[in-house]
């Protein structure tokens, strides 16, 4: 079921007006599910940092910031509670013994696995009555949309906007 916007019918571009509205509703609902414990207790930033470290291994702050499209100071601020909680640790950089990298700890890997399993189960429940081809199409279109957003952001940062 879609959540219609009362203003959507008054706009000259109903598809794009409805899309931006549906994205806002999605963001709100995802936050509601997360804060109610439905996706685990990891916020979006923690989830993305842990996932990045799990997929790509230890990294320095700058590499993480570049990969996530945020400032290094943002990563430093976001990773501090993960280090304090024992989910991320500091390891020596093999290329430069004076430098450190951030790495997923066994506790962090376990916590991430729990969250991934919970999110996958929620997705299965939410899409249970969707035909498999619609599930795959939704995933592909959402990935494409996210890629477009990433390209747009990278282009604006490159242009100094």
The rounded distance between the terminal residues' Cα atoms is 37 Å
DSSP strand tally: 2
Major sheet details: 2 strands, antiparallel
What is the count of helical runs?
6
User: What percentage of amino acids are in beta strands?
Assistant: 5-15%
Radius of gyration: 19 Å
Strand-pairing-aware structural class = mainly alpha
Helix-strand sequence: HHHHEEHH
List unreliable stretches of 5+ residues.
Answer: none
- What global shape is seen? globular
Spatial strand arrangement across the major sheet: 1-2
The percent range for helix content is 55-70%
Arithmetic mean of pLDDT? 87
Structure description:
The protein is mostly helical. It is 65% helix and 9% strand. The protein has 6 helices and 2 strands. Strands 1-2 form a two-stranded antiparallel ribbon. The radius of gyration is 19 Å and the shape is globular. The model has no long low-confidence stretch (mean pLDDT 87).
Write the topology of this structure.
Layout: H1 14-35, H2 44-56, H3 61-68, H4 72-84, E1 88-93, E2 96-104, H5 106-126, H6 132-158
Helix pairs in contact: 2-5, 3-4
Summarize the structure.
65% of the residues lie in helices and 9% in strands. The chain is mainly alpha-helical and 161 residues long.
């Amino acid at each position: 079921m879609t959540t219609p916007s009362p203003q959507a019918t008054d706009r000259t571009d109903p598809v794009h007006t409805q899309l931006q509205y549906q994205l806002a509703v999605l963001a709100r609902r995802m936050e509601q599910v997360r804060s109610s414990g439905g996706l685990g207790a990891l916020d979006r930033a923690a989830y993305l940092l842990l996932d990045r470290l799990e997929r790509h291994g230890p990294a320095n702050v700058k590499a993480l910031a570049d990969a996530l499209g945020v400032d290094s100071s943002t990563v430093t601020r976001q990773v501090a509670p993960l280090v304090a909680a024992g989910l991320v640790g500091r390891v020596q950089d093999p290329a430069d013994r004076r430098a450190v990298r951030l790495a997923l700890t066994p506790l962090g890997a376990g916590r991430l696995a729990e969250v991934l399993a919970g999110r996958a189960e929620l997705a299965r429940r939410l899409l249970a009555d969707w035909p498999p081809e619609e599930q795959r199409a939704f995933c592909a279109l959402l990935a494409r949309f996210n890629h477009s957003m990433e390209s747009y952001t990278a282009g604006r940062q490159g242009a100094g906007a």
